[in-house]
């Protein structure tokens, strides 16, 4: 039997048998980005028929508010004649299409924009191509490929950082140990590295209880550093919207979703979406050390309301009375406390003299 005949679950088990327990970040990387069997490489995970729904798929109003933010930030930068409009993990292209509809009302901005989508999923690339037909779009697989572009960067990352692989550590008998994925029989199970890690490697204000879990995302931090370096050289801003928390803390947030329902993260690698909440405090530290200005964190509700989503919903509903109940429900899903309004945060780093509206300096 060749590797080509094995499922991703079987391939991971073979690796565990050959090499022993693996880091959670390694497990997530294989499950999500294996070249042919990885979750983000082979299918469209979005929508009712997929595993989860993102804000742009809920309502066009979300992308329209992002479009307004892009236009205002471009003008705040002095309306440069060339700039890169970038989206990380652009899904089906829905968000960018909704942004462009707004930007078409702003003289000069689309002529100045070089639209770049950072995407590796071939299925989604074809959907993006269809949704953005007629637009001059460049697809790239890596952030460092943006170095060939000219002018400042305006980068959008909606539900991007949460999907980057994390490491987990568990506090046991007064010491931190990395949490690993191992094999018992044919079953994958959690275990701990027998080698404790030095206390100084961890935030000193965690005050962990026995068996507390601490998560860190070195990949997200490296992506933040890479983007900060690009913005430092060329100017611009990054807007990230994701679920997360403002400061490093203990608590397990790893989750797996399949068909909109939680499943065991170790059960079906490649068949379920794996995500974890974003530690915005850690990203802020990285960005500031790289010379960026980081704005005060906002909730998604605060950001969308400041950009004008409520009057937009009112006008939208007035123009389409038959659709008004759905428009009201979609708005509530995006901004209400019990839904996405406070769980999701809006985070911005930039190198302009003043923060992009509606953000404020920390």
UniProtKB/TrEMBL annotation:
Q: Which organism is it from?
A: Maritalea porphyrae
Provide the protein name.
ATP synthase subunit beta
InterPro entries in UniProt = NDUFAF7 (IPR003788), NDUFAF7_sf (IPR038375), SAM-dependent_MTases_sf (IPR029063)
Gene3D superfamilies from the xrefs? 3.40.50.12710
Q: Which UniProt keywords apply?
A: Methyltransferase, Transferase
ATP-binding as UniProt keyword? no
Q: By its UniProt entry, which Pfam families does this protein fall under?
A: Methyltransf_28 (PF02636)
């Amino acid at each position: 039997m060749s590797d080509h005949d094995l499922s991703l679950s079987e391939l991971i088990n073979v690796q565990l048998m050959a090499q022993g327990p693996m880091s959670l970040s390694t497990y997530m990387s294989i499950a999500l980005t294996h070249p042919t069997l990885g979750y983000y490489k082979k299918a469209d995970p979005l929508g009712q028929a997929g595993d989860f729904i993102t804000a742009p798929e809920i309502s066009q109003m979300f992308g329209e508010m992002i479009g307004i933010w892009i236009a205002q930030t471009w003008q705040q930068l002095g309306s440069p004649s060339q700039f890169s409009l970038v989206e990380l993990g652009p899904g089906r292209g829905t968000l960018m299409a909704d942004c462009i509809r707004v930007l078409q009302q702003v003289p000069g901005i689309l002529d100045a924009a070089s639209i770049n989508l950072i995407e590796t999923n071939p299925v989604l690339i074809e959907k993006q191509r269809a949704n953005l037909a007629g637009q001059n779009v460049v697809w790239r697989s890596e952030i460092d490929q943006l170095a060939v572009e000219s002018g400042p960067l305006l980068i959008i990352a909606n539900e991007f950082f949460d999907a980057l692989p994390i490491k987990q550590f568990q506090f046991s008998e007064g010491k931190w140990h990395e949490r690993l994925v191992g094999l018992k029989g044919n079953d994958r199970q959690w275990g701990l590295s027998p080698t404790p890690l030095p206390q100084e490697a961890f935030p000193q204000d965690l005050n962990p209880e026995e068996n507390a879990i601490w998560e860190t995302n070195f990949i997200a931090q490296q992506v933040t550093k890479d983007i900060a370096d690009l913005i430092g050289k060329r100017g611009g801003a990054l807007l990230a919207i994701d679920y997360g928390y403002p400061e490093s803390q203990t608590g397990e947030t790893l989750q797996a979703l399949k068909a909109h329902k939680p499943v065991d993260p170790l059960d079906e690698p490649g068949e379920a979406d794996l995500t974890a909440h974003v530690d915005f405090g850690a990203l802020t530290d990285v960005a500031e050390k790289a010379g960026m200005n980081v704005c005060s964190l906002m909730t998604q509700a605060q950001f969308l309301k400041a950009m004008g989503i409520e009057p937009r919903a009112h006008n939208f509903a007035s123009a389409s009375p038959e659709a008004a109940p759905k428009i009201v429900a979609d708005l509530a899903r995006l901004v209400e406390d019990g839904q996405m309004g406070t769980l999701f945060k809006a985070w911005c780093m930039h190198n302009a003299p003043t923060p992009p509206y509606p953000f404020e300096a920390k």
